[in-house]
Design goal:
mainly alpha, binds iron/sulfur cluster, 238 residues
């Protein structure tokens, strides 16, 4: 028998979360330009731009950057100062330098391709576990988990509850949850859905609990900004 992971909810609760989330996503998903491509290079560019930067600031720069450097080879062949200038004013200016280095490594070591493996992606300086998971699930359609700020917050609130803090002390637990919740073969939609859910409904400051489909499952419902509400899970009714 496989070992039981006490951090992971049982299959019935996972299915209920998945169904509710995907139903919500079908009606509320954001229309974002990097969701219209499966090119791993373009998805990588979007993910690096989205680190610490809001979506509406990223969208015009994403288009501009890809007009100028439409392929890995063209980015690798540009000067790093030109790439950094194109990046402005997005900020966190180490990012274009790293992206440029990633493109050069991809050309020299992978024949100009972004590799389709978590290990190879994480071997690039500047590609962490989140970005590797995003490229694997959004470009290569593999069931790889992700854990950005939005995903962390949603999983934390629904499955761990408010008294467990912001998740920073339990990243291992949240990575396990993120992986265990993916419906087989559906990481693309599922991961996008959790991100949208966190960005639009279960937001950091004002989660819209009144209209939230997760109410019966959520250990933080109703959300209290002072974190004083922490309901026991109602496992029997799930
Ligand atoms: S009930 Fe509130 S805290 Fe729980 S997932 Fe929904 S919006 Fe977030």
């Amino acid at each position: 028998m496989p070992p039981v992971n006490r951090h992971v909810p049982d299959p019935a609760i996972r299915r209920r979360f998945q169904r509710r989330l995907l139903r919500w996503y079908a009606r509320h998903q954001r229309d974002l330009p990097w969701r219209k491509t499966s090119d791993p290079y373009k998805i990588l560019v979007s993910e690096v731009m989205l680190q610490q930067t809001q979506v509406d600031r990223v969208i015009p720069k994403y288009h501009e950057f890809l007009r100028k450097y439409p392929t890995v080879e063209e980015l690798a062949g540009a000067s790093v100062s030109d790439v950094a200038a194109t990046w402005r004013p997005l900020g966190y200016n180490i990012r274009p330098v790293r992206l440029h280095a990633i493109a050069q490594q991809a050309v020299h070591r992978h024949d100009g391709k972004i590799p389709a493996s978590l290990e190879e992606l994480q071997a690039f300086k500047g590609i962490g576990r989140y970005t590797a998971g995003a490229v694997m699930s959004f470009a290569f359609r593999q069931d790889a988990p992700i854990l950005d700020t939005n995903v962390k917050r949603v999983l934390q609130r629904v499955f761990l509850g408010p008294r467990n803090g912001n998740g920073s002390k339990s990243p291992k637990r949240l990575w396990e949850l993120s992986a265990a919740l993916i419906p087989k073969g559906k990481a693309y939609d599922f991961n996008q859905a959790v991100m949208d859910f966190g960005a639009l409904l279960c937001t950091a400051r004002k989660p819209n609990c009144e209209v939230c489909p997760m109410q019966p499952l959520c250990r933080s419902y109703p959300w209290d900004k002072d974190n004083t509400s922490c309901r026991k899970p109602r496992r029997s009714s799930m």
